[in-house]
Structure formats: C-alpha cells, structure tokens
Amino acid sequence: MAFSVNTNVGAMAALQSLNETNKGLSQVQSRINTGLKVASTKDDSASYTIAQGLRGDMGGLNAVSSSLSRAKSVTDVAVAGAEQISDVVNQMKAKAYQAADAGIDTATRDALNSDFVALRDQITTIVKSSDFNGTNLLKAGGGTVTALQSLQDSNSASTTWDPDSLSVANQGLDLGGSTVTIASGATISTQATAQAMIDTITTTQGNLKTSLSTLGAASRKIDAQSTFTSKLSDVIEGGIGNLVDADLAKESAKLQALQVKQQLGVQALSIANQAPSTITSLFR
C-alpha cells in the first residue's frame, strides 16, 4: 500500500461509513419522533399512497357517522312523540267508552268531555314539540330524514356520485289527518258522538301501530348501521397503522446500535485522519 498525503483512502472509507450511519440514525430518530415508518412518499410510495386513500375513506366514514347520528336523533324524537300520542289516544278511547254509557248524567258526561278535549289538544302540542334541528317527522310537511349509510355508490352505472342512503318518511300525526283521524274539533259531549268516536279512535290506533312500527324499524336500522360504520372505521384505522406506523421497540433497539456505531465511526475516522502524519517519520 502506497503512502500519500494527497489521498487518504482509509479516511474516505471511514467517512462514507460514518455518513451512512448518520443517515440511518436520522431516519430512526424521525420514526421515533413521528411514530411513523412511512411519513412521506419518499419513504415508501406504495404504502404511502394506499394509506392516503384509506385516510380519505376515513374522512368519508366520519361524514357517514355524523349523518347517521343526526338521523338517529330526529327519529328518536319522533318515536318518543308517537309513543306519547299512542298513550293519549288510549286514554281518549277510555273517556269515549265512559261517555257512551247511557246511564251517566249530563254533568259526568261534560266532565268526561272536558278531559277528552284536553287530551285531544295535547296531541297537537306533542306533534309541534317533536322537532329536532328543524325536522319534524310527526307534523305534516315537517320534512323527512335522509342519511348516508355508506360510501358505496348506489348506482355503479351512473357517471355521478350517488351514495347509498336510508330515509325515514314523515308520519303526519296531526289531528284530522290520514293517520290520526280524530278531528281537531272532536268531542264526546253526547252519547252518540261518544259512540262514533270509539270507532274513529279504533281506526287511529290501527294507524298508529303502523307508524310506530315504521319509526321503530328505522331507528333500529340506523343503530345497526352506526355500529357497523364504527367497526369499519376502526378496521380501516388499524389497516393504516399496519402500513405506516413504526414499531417503536425495534426503532429503540436500532437507535442504540446506531449510536454505538456512530461513536465507533468517529473514532475510526480520527484514526484514519492520523495516518498521513506517520509519513513525516520517514524523513527524520
């Protein structure tokens, strides 16, 4: 091996090795600081691209979850109102049965009628109060609920995005409507009107069963979809982690090894840099 003061091959080799060690050390420190082994497309283009796509899906699922929560709230308010109306109608029917009794006196029938009218007006109050965020499923014209239930396009042949959704129809439980057939001015002030009211209320009760069943089924469907969306979101988040998260236990071990290697590299470079000085001993 030739001695030269112009070219120190040993020092160059030691420097290259030290640079590689420093590069690895920087990478490990970055992974420890961010918790990510793939923080940029420069780290791993394939994994980064897939993770970015999944992150976009996560944003969409958050929107689905929010939409379902809103629909759930509107539907639950409607369910509570419809159940209360059903209870009121049952009480009205009991009053009508009592008022239809030919053996009661006028004062008793008047008292029963007063109770009946108060219950009748309570239906209107319940309907008006069953509002959530501007949507009232119990009031005719109060709107319907449509919520996203997935990011899946419901029409794959369409050229525009048409997401899969679920809807809850307006039930229209106003007095005098097609469901609650009791007129807004209905009374049981006479035996005849009380007798006729029994039939009217029986029809209303049958209609309310259908409305309650519809609202209950919709609420359960929203609950089930919300649960699935939450689980799907967790699975996707776990998938992203598998792609880009760093194993900090491994990175910690690498860090210690590289720190020792860096110290040794600095010492090796120092020794290599001292080699040319030995040449001066040849000229003594």
Automatic annotation (TrEMBL):
Domain Flagellin C-terminal: residue ranges: 199-283
Domain Flagellin N-terminal: 5-139
GO cellular component: bacterial-type flagellum; extracellular region
InterPro entries, sorted: Flagellin, Flagellin_C, Flagellin_N
Subcellular location: Secreted; Bacterial flagellum
Keywords of this entry: Bacterial flagellum, Cell projection, Cilium, Flagellum, Secreted
A molecular function GO annotation: structural molecule activity
Primary localization class, coarse: secreted
UniProt similarity note: Belongs to the bacterial flagellin family.
Reported function: Flagellin is the subunit protein which polymerizes to form the filaments of bacterial flagella.
Protein name, per record: Flagellin
Organism of this sequence: Sphingomonas kyeonggiensis
